[in-house]
Amino acid sequence: xxxxxxxxxxxxxxxxxxxxxxxxxxxxxxxxxxxxxxxxxxxxxxxxxxxxxxxxxxxxxxxxxxxxxxxxxxxxxxxxxxxxxxxxxxxxxxxxxxxxxxxxxxxxxxxxxxxxxxxxxxxxxxxxxxxxxxxxxxxxxxxxxxxxxxxxxxxxxxxxxxxxxxxxxxxxxxxxxxxxxxxxxxxxxxxxxxxxxxxxxxxxxxxxxxxxxxxxxxxxxxxxxxxxxxxxxxxxxxxxxxxxxxxxxxxxxxxxxxxxxxxxxxxxxxxxxxxxxxxxxxxxxxxxxxxxxxxxxxxxxxxxxxxxxxxxxxxxxxxxxxxxxxxxxxxxx
Length: 333
Prior knowledge:
Number of helices: 15
Shape: globular
Order of helices and strands: HHHHHHHHHHHHHHH
Low-confidence stretches: none
């Protein structure tokens, strides 16, 4: 833990470093990928020339570090170099996690350290580095403590007090769910309720809400498919959580739509209102596409279609072709 703490604190960005979204910073963060690509090329060439040996260690990283150091002065060095060092160190750590060299409890401590230092991007990468498929929840009240492999994710999901941590948690959950490493049943458990609530708050804000949108458009269709996959007509225990999420999205859209009608608030809420309305449309069409040819109930899809229709019929699009299409889709279910 001490070496990771030292790495993160010594490479913390300050005012004199390039901005995180600058071209230079983006290139330096790609340093590990550059090293990996060159090393892969050298291995292929050595294999073709039949000169592989245990003594043929690659010097790519040393050579690249030397070239970057030459960009600075002999006394002060080159300050942006620490961006490459930070990215390279974290890449090696993530590779070790992927190779299962760390105990899950130790990995959870690494994620906790990143969260406490405010390094949420690093925490997210560590939490999603493992390739292990996580176990399913035992009940809807499960809290990510039943298995040690769940603990790294719990450090993010259970630490959602700050928005930056919530963004990292949403991004991690989206990646794990999309890669089928996180069973979709977890999305309906009580431990994820606060994450759904935070996602609605972030989408309704004036910020872009990129992480919240990615989380919702990825996880909501999966949540509906899991809910509707029951072979019988009996409602599942997860249906209440699904109803709360869909109702929350609908209420958020209606509130924002009401705010848009006032001239003083239109500029602040119009983008958020369109964002939430787009989410309903996108999730509905994704759900319909994935349900094609599948057997099961349509309760979740009906909830989404009903919310979509109510938003279209009562908002600024009332009477438009979009509202008519939403009504047709609802009747078809």
